[in-house]
Amino acid sequence: MRRPSPSPAEQAASRRIVAAFLVSAAGAVGFAVTYGLGGDTRWEGVCLAVAFAGLAVGLAVWSRRLVPVGGYVEEHEGFTPPPAEQAMTAAVFAAPESPTRRYGLLAALGFALTALGVAALFPLRSLLPWDRGRPLRARKDTPWGPGVRLVDDAGRPLRPDDVPAETMVAVFPEGDPDAGDAPAFAVRLDPERFSRPPAGGHLGGLVVWSLLCTHAGCPVRLYLKGTGRVLCPCHQSSFDLLAGARAVGGPAARPLPGLPIEVGPDGFLRATGDFTAPPGAGFWSRP
To answer: Is the pTM of this model over 0.85?
Structure first.
């Protein structure tokens, strides 16, 4: 039986499907390129939205415009359908589309799915513990470093005398106070009470630690004056600052990372390096 030629409406639907799959592939490629160049979450989200929207539109048009719809009923009496029904069934199985068009649509679909799969490998690769991918590397490199001055929440550089005894003062790196992994706190303790030296050292009892709890990354903002301990209000993890900021209660298992500091030539406090360990939540793989 001669295959029916595609109608103009079917040809137009095929073109829309191919265009939608190509748009999906372009969105996936855009996501991979944006991620590889350093990443911007807004543009990465836009590219993924375009990729999945194109895939959804293409599949929807294919199913509504080119896939045969049912509605054929066979009477129970008699097992040989009428000639008209036989011809209609043969036409349905023969296609409404040619093999060339079907292969073209499948090729476009395969290209879109392949592009999405390759794009998904970029963020997955970065999470491997042996890979130097961006998320793990970013957790080890904060804005703190040699020469970075400590500033308060108003952006004012701090001198040692700006940290009173037994008082917790939030500090941030000058020039990048909004970095999510950078918040720290300074407190002045009696160095004679240290049972374990602070990981980042101290200046006459003045010590600085990361403000992020090592359990889930909440800010450790409650200082128990006189005890040398700080408490995380989220899950009640507590840390003993007199014993190297080790975790002594709650779900946290790691001590707070310390920040090595010194007094610069200008008299202001400044860091001599980064945190002694990656700050924040402890569920990432670490050496």
So the answer is: no
Query: What does the DSSP 8-state code read for residue 22?
Result: H
Helix (H) or strand (E) holding 172: strand 169-173
pLDDT in tens, 114-152: 888 888 777 766 665 544 444 444 445 789 999 999 999
pLDDT digits over 238-266, tens only? 999 999 999 999 999 899 999 999 999 99
> Which of these, 274, 257, 195, lies nearest to 220 by C-alpha position?
257
Structural tokens at position 216: 């889930």
Note whether 24 and 116 are within 8 A (CB): yes
Contact status, residue 254 vs residue 216, Cβ threshold 8 Å:
no
> What is the three-class DSSP state of 178?
coil
State how beta strands 246-249 and 184-188 pair: unpaired
Is-contact 55 108, C-beta < 8 A?
Answer: no
Q: How many residues does the chain have?
A: 287
